[in-house]
């Protein structure tokens, strides 16, 4: 762990119902950093968040907030003693209170003028000043989520925990809200940890991101590194849409594939002639009328600004490709593509 860590999770294990649901997880966040835990249902991410909040007592390991041990072999502080803010999936706004009343609820023991200033500052930060006297049912879903966020940060918590807070929104709205709330957290300097199953939401929200599977944290890294330099095959498959094609190592910068020789910086060194699997993501594939690689359109998904095409190329390999939406190709159509791989993400072949 880093010496300046604001939140430290050290070798946490959690057993529930005789099953290990969190298995020796460690991560850290510095003051003001925003992290996220990404993974499918049942991977352990929510149990880990609940342990940070104090709702679950770990069977092993330590949790420190601002260098104070809040969970460990000799200490387990109750949730109300941890100075934690939480935003839940159901938001849990008080229907009988106005927006201003909801935001000020956690600081109601302060002087009236202090409460007014803090509430006004936070509402202005998320562009909801004119909604102060409205009630939650009069707001849109996105506005309710902004209110839930600033209510949680009004008492100036040491750490803010968010449990699937955007799940009620469609994909585009989730990403927009994640960006907006990230900016709000940036302005307040709050350290935050998000739990989500939506990778685009996590990318939009986070500085650091971890992928969990079967209770283990497989990689905790910057969002850039998780996408471009996944250290495990599961992470490569889970984060970003991509496919693997078979390849053979020629040297430390070149791979021989069914699409020709591909050159780039390889994620891991392998001896010459080693069979490997090469990850190809949609942004590695370009529609190119002059391209030498021919592909047949298998299916397409319209996404507004672009189409997401699944293409069948030589030897039956499939790749996924983003193409600007003013180019439209029907299934079965042959098109030309080119590959532009800067990072050669390779793993031992599963075909041998």
Description:
- The structure is a single chain.
- It contains 8 helices and 22 strands.
- It is α+β, with helices and mostly antiparallel strands.
- A hairpin with a 2-residue loop joins strand 11 and strand 12.
- The model has no long low-confidence stretch (mean pLDDT 91).
What would a concise description of this structure say?
It contains eight helices and 22 strands. It is of the alpha+beta class and 352 residues long. Helix 4 (141-153) packs parallel to helix 5 (171-188).
Output the keywords.
alpha+beta, globular, 22 strands, 5-stranded antiparallel sheet, single chain, 352 residues
Order of helices and strands: EEEHEEEHHHEHEHEEHHEEEEEEEEEEEE
Number of distinct helices: 8
- Low-pLDDT stretches are none
Give the integer mean of the pLDDT values: 91
What Rg is obtained from the alpha carbons, in whole angstroms?
A: 24 Å
Count all strands and give the number. Answer: 22
Distance between the termini: 39 Å
Proportion of helical residues: 10-25%
Q: What's the main sheet like?
A: 6 strands, mixed
The quaternary structure here is single chain
Write the layout of secondary structure elements.
Layout: E1 5-16, E2 19-30, E3 34-38, H1 45-53, E4 60-65, E5 68-71, E6 84-87, H2 99-103, H3 112-125, H4 141-153, E7 159-163, H5 171-188, E8 191-196, H6 199-205, E9 208-213, E10 216-222, H7 223-228, H8 233-238, E11 243-251, E12 254-257, E13 260-263, E14 265-266, E15 275-280, E16 285-287, E17 293-302, E18 306-312, E19 318-324, E20 334-339, E21 343-344, E22 346-348
Parallel strand pairs: 3-8, 3-9, 6-7, 7-8, 14-21
Antiparallel strand pairs: 1-2, 1-4, 4-5, 9-10, 11-12, 11-15, 12-13, 15-22, 16-20, 17-18, 17-20, 18-19
Helix pairs in contact: 4-5, 5-6
């Amino acid at each position: 762990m880093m010496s300046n860590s604001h939140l430290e999770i050290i070798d946490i294990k959690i057993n529930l119902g005789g099953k290990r649901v969190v298995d020796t997880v460690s991560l850290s966040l510095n003051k003001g950093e925003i992290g996220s835990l990404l993974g499918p249902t049942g991977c352990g991410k929510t149990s880990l968040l609940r342990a940070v909040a104090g709702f679950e007592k770990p069977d092993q390991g330590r949790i420190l907030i601002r260098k104070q041990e809040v969970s460990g072999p000799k200490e387990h502080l109750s949730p109300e003693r941890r100075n934690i803010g939480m935003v839940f999936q159901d938001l849990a706004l008080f229907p009988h209170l106005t927006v201003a009343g909801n935001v000020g609820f956690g600081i109601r023991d302060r002087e009236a003028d202090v409460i007014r200033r803090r509430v006004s500052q936070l509402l202005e930060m998320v562009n909801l000043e004119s909604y102060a006297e409205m009630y939650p049912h009069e707001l849109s879903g996105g506005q309710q989520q902004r209110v839930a966020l600033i209510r949680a940060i009004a008492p100036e918590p040491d750490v803010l925990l968010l449990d699937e807070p955007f799940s009620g929104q469609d994909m585009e709205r989730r990403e927009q809200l994640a960006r907006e709330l990230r900016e709000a957290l940036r302005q307040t300097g709050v350290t935050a940890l998000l739990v989500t199953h939506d990778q685009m939401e996590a990318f939009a929200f986070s500085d650091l991101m971890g992928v969990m599977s079967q209770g283990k944290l497989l990689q905790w890294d910057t969002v850039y590194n998780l996408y471009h330099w996944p250290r495990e095959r599961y992470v490569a498959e889970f984060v970003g849409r991509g496919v693997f094609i078979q390849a053979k190592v020629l040297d430390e910068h070149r791979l021989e594939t069914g699409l020709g020789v591909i050159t780039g910086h390889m994620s891991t060194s392998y001896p010459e002639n080693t069979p490997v699997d090469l990850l190809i993501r949609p942004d590695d594939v370009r529609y190119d009328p002059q391209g030498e690689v021919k592909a047949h359109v298998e299916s397409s998904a319209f996404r507004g600004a672009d189409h997401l095409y699944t293409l069948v190329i030589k030897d039956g390999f499939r790749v996924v490709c983003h193409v600007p939406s003013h180019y439209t190709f029907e299934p079965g159509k042959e098109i030309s593509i080119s590959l532009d791989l800067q990072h050669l993400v390779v793993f031992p072949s599963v075909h041998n």
